[in-house]
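Retry 2 of 3 after timeout on previous attempt. Resubmitting structure tokens to design endpoint.
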């Protein structure tokens, strides 16, 4: 069991999640991305879809604009709380919250739940950006605030836009997509070289070997591209690396927050761990 994860029954009762009464993600709405990606549609339908996409971006921007500096944790939805990677992600969530960061995930179960749960354990803010999927779409109960998106690419923008570091835990296709897209954005200088921490050395070692021994060897990436990643199994090392890089290299101040504008109907209330808020 990693450090800082409560194990006694009293602590479990104290930290029990508040029930989420909304049924978000439980009854899948019509999939907007399927017709969007199928083929050209009528001009009217394309215009209306573009408006819906724009509106979804604006809704996400408004919901997350006042969020304190985030660290996004990517990982599989399929690990239960007894799994070693779940316990590792929970310890990471604890450390990030104690360092003053907001923990952001995809809002689902597994690794996402573990990271959000760790943030809750430490009394820190916890956010989820959800999308409805055929499987694994239920929200986890450790979210202070969650936003639901119809379009996968809009959700991915939000997970990157508001984060100053990224933690890549073991996962499947979705985790690999998120990890390599983040690396591509850094490599092409579309975003700054924010810290990317890869956790679970045993799990990722075959992929790291492929990157080093095949992709670098064949010249499809440069050897220096591997320097974007810190590979570790230590939550303490991960948190120290993130905190020092974000605060020293990029000058991020945890206390610095944008001002709310009353004429934009921006409320002064902040999400608290006892009041789960849902934006849709």
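Retry 2 succeeded. Sequence:
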């Amino acid at each position: 069991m990693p450090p800082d994860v409560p194990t006694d029954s009293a602590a479990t009762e104290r930290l029990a999640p508040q029930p989420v009464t909304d049924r978000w993600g439980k009854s899948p709405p019509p999939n907007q991305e399927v017709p969007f990606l199928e083929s050209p549609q009528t001009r009217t339908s394309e215009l209306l879809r573009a408006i819906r996409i724009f509106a979804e971006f604006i809704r996400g921007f408004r919901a997350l604009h006042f969020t304190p500096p985030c660290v996004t944790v990517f990982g599989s939805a399929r690990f239960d709380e007894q799994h070693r990677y779940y316990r590792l992600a929970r310890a990471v969530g604890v450390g990030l919250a104690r360092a003053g960061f907001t923990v952001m995930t995809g809002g689902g179960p597994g690794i996402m739940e573990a990271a959000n749960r760790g943030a809750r354990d430490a009394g820190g803010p916890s956010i989820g950006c959800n999308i409805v999927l055929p499987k694994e779409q239920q929200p986890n109960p450790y979210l202070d605030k969650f936003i639901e998106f119809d379009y996968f690419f809009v959700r991915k923008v939000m997970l990157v836009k508001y984060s100053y570091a990224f933690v890549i835990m073991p996962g499947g296709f979705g985790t690999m997509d998120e990890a390599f897209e983040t690396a591509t954005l850094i490599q092409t200088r579309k975003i700054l070289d924010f810290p990317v921490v890869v956790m679970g050395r045993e799990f990722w070692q075959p992929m790291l070997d492929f990157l080093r021994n095949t992709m670098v060897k064949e010249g499809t990436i440069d050897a220096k591209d591997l320097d974007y990643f810190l590979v570790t199994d230590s939550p303490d090392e991960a948190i120290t690396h993130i905190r020092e890089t974000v605060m020293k290299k990029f000058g991020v101040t945890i206390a610095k927050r944008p001002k709310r504008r009353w004429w934009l109907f921006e409320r002064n209330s902040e999400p608290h761990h006892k009041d789960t808020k849902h934006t849709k």
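Attempt log closed. The chain is about 40% helix and 15% strand.
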